[in-house]
């Protein structure tokens, strides 16, 4: 189970609207200066994701919840998104190469296969996203914000 903490925005009729912060992929690595992923993370905007999750327990805005999603569903969705364009690229490129025996035909077939694989993944993902095992679930619920109190002791109060 892959876990992530989220903040509740609202709760209505058994559905919680939660917000997850996007974490940068690298912040603690020792090779930050020469990392290409770090440079790419700086280019894109840091956004948050809003997700509706079923929850029977009443929640309040600002409350923290731990979300979980099964590894198998995450891996299968990643396989769909990444492998279908790749398989389309190689398969249609090879078919065009064997049919027309020209490199330009193989290139055109590869482009068409990659686009076709992308469109296939795009068409299948909404249908697969409705499966219950592909939905995030609330694993644990933190205390509401008004129940948390922090007392800071200063040196003046100590004997």
From TrEMBL:
The keyword Isomerase does not apply. The chain crosses the membrane at residues 74-96, 102-121. Keywords: Membrane, Transmembrane, Transmembrane helix. NCBIfam families: PRK10862.1. This is Positive regulator of sigma(E), RseC/MucC. It comes from Kosakonia oryziphila.
């Amino acid at each position: 189970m892959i876990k992530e903490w989220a903040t509740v925005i609202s709760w209505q009729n058994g559905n919680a609207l939660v917000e997850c912060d996007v974490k940068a992929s690298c912040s603690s690595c020792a090779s930050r200066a020469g990392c290409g992923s770090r440079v790419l993370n700086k280019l894109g905007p840091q956004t948050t994701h809003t997700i509706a999750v079923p929850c029977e327990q009443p929640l309040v805005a600002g409350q923290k919840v731990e979300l979980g999603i099964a590894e198998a569903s995450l891996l299968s969705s990643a396989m769909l998104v990444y492998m279908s364009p790749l398989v389309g690229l190689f398969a249609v490129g090879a078919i065009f190469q064997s049919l027309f025996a020209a490199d330009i035909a193989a290139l055109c077939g590869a482009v068409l296969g990659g686009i076709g694989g992308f469109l296939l993944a795009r068409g299948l993902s909404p249908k697969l996203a409705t499966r219950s095992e592909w939905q995030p679930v609330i694993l644990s619920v933190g205390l509401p914000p008004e129940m948390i109190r922090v007392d800071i002791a200063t040196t003046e109060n100590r004997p």
